[in-house]
Amino acid sequence: MVRVNLKNFWQKTREKLKDEARHPHKVALGAAVGVGVSFIPLPGMGAIMALAVAWLVRGSIPAALVSQVIGNPWTFPFIWAASLAVGKIVLPVQEGVNLVALMNNLTWQFFIDNRQDLLMNILVPMGLGGLILGFIFALLTYAVVLWELRRWLIKHGQEAQG
Hints:
mainly alpha, elongated
């Protein structure tokens, strides 16, 4: 039963994207939103944030939901490492928490004892770096998707709307 519903969901999403393909700006904006929110270090919140932001900017919600899966368990370590590195360049912080110690001591007590260092030396720079990288990758995604959709429409003899 779930398999049928999931198949139905993907089929409807694909049809909606096909209908929206005649509006390249809307689809590109939705895809950019989805990729951009994937860089914000809040696992499990990507779909909700993509949906909300796509709705606010009037982008394609299906495109945002599909493209936000760029943030997944296989890519999160790379995204978070890059976000932390960029965040530490932009926001110089003192080294307080050793990441190796953090990985070796993943207990609530460790988090409670080191909450100030974790917040100021890891979470804030990672969030700032994620916003910066998310914005950069969102711009790149917008440009690539817009260009590709317009090219596809010309190839298939259709005219872009909007």
